[in-house]
Structure formats: C-alpha cells, structure tokens
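Box S1 | Example of a co-folding query
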Amino acid sequence: MGKECLLEVKNLKTTFMTEKGPVTAVNGVSFEIYSGETLGIVGESGCGKSVTSESILRLLNENTTKYEGELIYKGSNLLSLSEDQMRHIRGNEISMIFQDPMTSLNPVYTIGYQIAESFIIHQRLGKEEAYTQAIEMLKLTGIPSPEKRVNEYPHELSGGMRQRVMIAMALACNPNLLIADEPTTALDVTIQAQILDLIQGLKKELNMGVMLITHDLGVVAEVCTRVVVMYLGQIIEEAEVGSLFSEPLHPYTKGLLKSVPRLDGDRSKNMHVIEGMVPSLNNIPRGCRFAPRCSYSTSLCEEKPPELKEIEDGHKVRCWHYETVLQEGRRKGIADAVR
Ligand SMILES: Nc1ncnc2c1ncn2[C@@H]1O[C@H](COP(=O)(O)OP(=O)(O)O)[C@@H](O)[C@H]1O
Ligand code: SF4
Ligand SMILES: [Mg+2]
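Box S1 (continued) | Returned holo structure for iron/sulfur cluster
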C-alpha cells in the first residue's frame, strides 16, 4: 500500500471574534497527513491543537470564527465546501474522536442504535444489517460479548469501553482519516495503552491516516511516525519521531522532552516543567513567541520572529539559534556516552 497525501493543511489561520476583539488561535499552520501514517500533534494545553482539528472538520461556530488558508482534501479545499458537502466529509471521509466519549455518545440511546445509525444514514443499510455491522464494529474494537453490549446504554460501560464504542462509531463510516484529540488522556495507563494499540491496529488494517493529538511525548514515541510541535498557535518544529527525540532543534521541544516521564523509576520525580507562563493570545511577543521563556534568547529573538525553516530532510524548526541547541545536544550526547 503506497503512501498517499490525504490532507494538505496550507497556512491555516483560525480567528475567533471575541468581545475583546479578534483572537487568532491558529496562526499559519501547514502540514500534510499521509495514508497509513500516524502524525502526532503535541504542545502544552492552549497551544491550538484542538482548534486545528476542529478547523479541519469545520466544527467551530462559523458566525464567530474566521478560517483562512487551505485544507486540500481529494483535490478540493474543505474551507470552500458547502455545509452539506462538509457533512458528507464528516460522515464518510474524516472522523474524529474526542477525549470525553460522552461528547459523542447520546445517553438516551443504546450503543448499538448509535453505531447502527451511522450505517443507516451514510451507507443506507437496512436496520437489521446495520445492527449486524454494529456488532462487527464492536468486535473489531475488542469489546467482549458485543451481541450483548449493543443493547446497553453508555452509562453501563466503563470509560475504556466507552472509548472503544466511540472509536467504533468513528470507524463505522470507514474514514480515510481519523483525527483523535487526546483520546486516552482521561484513561488510566493500562487502558490508555490498549486504546492506542487498538487505534494502531485499526490504522494498519484500514490503511487510514491518523492525526493523534496529545500533550504527552511518551505517547508520540510509542505510536507516531512523524510529529508536529505547536506553541502558541504556530508550528515550532516538525520531524520524524526518531530525529525529534535524538536531535531536537527547538528549545521548547527540548524542554518538552525533559518532561517526558521516564518508564523506569519514579515518574513524579522525573517530571520537568518548562518555566514561565505561556503568553496570552491577546499579548503575543513581537519577536519569537517563545522568547520570554527561552534560555537561549538574544536581542534578535526579541526583535524578529523566526520563520519555520527546513534544516534537513523533513526536519523543520522555527528558531534563530537552532544550531546552538543542536551543538549543545550533541556535546551532551557525547558526554553521556563517555560517562
Ligand atoms: N471559541 C473560542 N473563542 C475564543 N478563544 C478560543 C475558543 N476556543 C479556543 N480558544 C482559545 O484558543 C486557544 C487554543 O485552544 P485549544 O486549541 O483548545 O488548545 P489545546 O492545544 O489545548 O487543544 C486557547 O487559547 C483557547 O483559549
Ligand atoms: S528564536 Fe530565540 S527565543 Fe525563540 S526559541 Fe529560538 S533561541 Fe529561543
Ligand atoms: Mg485540546
């Protein structure tokens, strides 16, 4: 199965019209997602991960939100489709799962009904056949005794089971692209690993592209092929997972990597928090957005915002002093090896 570009996000800009004036939460974001790959989107809370994914599916209130840029899917720009056409995309082409399954599940219907509904609406199956398919989907997501489970209501299931149901619903339309917004954040570690395995397995089986949003680089290391790091509405680094972990080029990424809980030993002890506060979107630094928190910052950084630049094949960074960061990392690597 070849790699095919599923979605091209080109210079996406999402602006909310608030009482205090316009706020641009996503500011010039560009990336591509290929079939069969898992692209990770990481960054601290508030950096624009969810707004990016909600923009792709145009889920935000369009009376108060302005989208700019292009979202090229199968040759057309999603931003210029009608609402009807978008509904078709959401039901058949691009699916999304959320952190809290209860946002997608309706408490008053059985889970079988909710999954079957998707088959009835989008694939025009009869009721009986739709239920059979719903049971198949539940089986696929590893839910035990699915024939029994279809008749249960969301509140009768555990958090992990609900997450599986939401995945079953999202995959019922056989999407080309699955957007998963922190799908395991609310779950405990064992269940988290199971759900990630499930997504990975289904991705392979269905040759989907997956866009996995997380604030946890440990999750990225486990399941992603490529990763995009966001800070304050912009991409600050993009790389293959291997090269991001071995040679991070941005001071912020380096800080995030230090905060990945180590698998050995005391997790709490190893937590590192990047110092300083994220500036508000109403008060963005004139130069580099990370400058107020950056230990490498110089006057150039405070004056002029750096552009995102491709340094080597597939590795991009937005930093004036990435070479210093890289050299230091290499020296440290050698020191560690000698020790
Ligand atoms: N409807 C909205 N109106 C105004 N600001 C919003 C709205 N939704 C999100 N934001 C702001 O956009 C920024 C990005 O939010 P979000 O994408 O949810 O972050 P995260 O990376 O944690 O998913 C935040 O500063 C958030 O407060
Ligand atoms: S441009 Fe300057 S302030 Fe910004 S991340 Fe790089 S070194 Fe730090
Ligand atoms: Mg979010």
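The chain is about 35% helix and 25% strand. The chain has two domains: 5-93+175-338, 103-174.
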